[in-house]
Amino acid sequence: MFHKSIKRAVLSHKTLSNFRQYSKTIKQKHPLRKTLDIIKGDFPSVFGKKDNYLEHADIVIIGGGIIGSSIAYWLKTRAGRGLSVAVIEKDLTFKKAQQSSTFSLNQHFSLPENILLSQYGAEFYRNFNKNMFSNVDIEYCPHGYLVLASEKYAENMQYNVTLQREHGVRNELLSPQTIKRRYPWINTEDVALGCVGTELEGTFNSWSVLNALVQRCKDMGTVYMDAEVTGFELQSQRDVMMEGVPPGSFKRIYKVQYTSPEGKEMDIKFASCILAAGAESANIAKMADVGIGKGLLSIPLPIKSRKQNIYTLKGDENPIGIGTPLIQDSSGLWFKRNGLMNETLVGHLPLSTVDSNISEQEYFDTVIKQPLENRVPVLKNAEIINTSTECTDYNTYDDTAIVGPHPYHNNLVIAAGFGGLAYQHAPGIGRAIAELIIDSRYINIELTRLHFDRLLTSESMVELNIY
């Protein structure tokens, strides 16, 4: 107990002192020079293009996708130009991002954290142009999200709905008879219960969102660096006491090493580093000895890449009307109408039991065909006219995101493993990480249960929303 008290005290002290330690290592600029640099940032067209390869920044974010850029947005929104933020991203074209996807918002979760993050995400996107000071069409389309439950899991759904309503979610439980009356083309023979959201659910264009968010971050002074992270530099801090760490052996990360597209090797000094590199996060964490060290460094960051196939179907008839909600089946199948087109988008929640290397057609025949024909018999002869593949990062430990400081490298804040929830949770995650950095605590949504520490204590955070 005494050692744990020391650890908590050290971590609290170090969080508050990161910026003080960092500022001592950097030569302070003359006030006039500092003012001129700020003016140059405000008027780049007058002073020319600014060098994007910085030597130091208060905050370095690794990963410029939706999570990393959301964190940058909130840091700059909270602290303005008084806080320097640099984002390192190896693909500033974001060609590997989920560019053409229409992402969904829903609140059908069993974890309070996921419910609250989704609620805030929906509010943020509803007011997106106001938040971005822009006039971007993100194709936000409000509609419900209908989840179906089998007899085996109907009680679970009722429990989750009660929890959701306690957190302000507005939804409606539907009997099989009501579902059949509203959507007569749905086979409800093996459906015991349904739940549809009546507010803060819908879809939006993720590519438009990411583009606008990155531009807003740049407008506020965030520097995006086209580079690939290659390592970290550490420095000894012999005065730090931490449970499980031999006295005098603690080493703190303080620089990120990176390589430019031209092959130039450089580094950048920081006070705090945010790791939001998606599926690459585990490999980058390993560069800081996470998963290959001893004690608190012995446990790896369990983040991997996972792909999902999305099929566009077209048949002689499509009973799914424009106002029909996205439907998530009890089997894990999901489907929705594809906008104004007489087409249906179909996918399936990832299955660990299915070989990810099988062909798209084989995946459809093995995983999707039977449950789709069972739930919507009229689509039995629908033809696949297009297939797209999306890759997401997921947490192999419990399939829930890891958010917060690493227990050893407390100036390394992790935000990874969101699976398909990255876009709808990004606004809340960005705000929460900014609170952690600036206020040293969460203010709006408490996310302590999502910290890396749960891997040390074997406390999983499993989302139970498939029925």
From TrEMBL:
InterPro entries: FAD-dep_OxRdtase (IPR006076), FAD/NAD-bd_sf (IPR036188). SUPFAM superfamilies: FAD/NAD(P)-binding domain (SSF51905). GO terms for biological process: mitochondrial respiratory chain complex I assembly. Pfam families: DAO. GO terms for cellular component: mitochondrion. This is (diamondback moth) hypothetical protein.
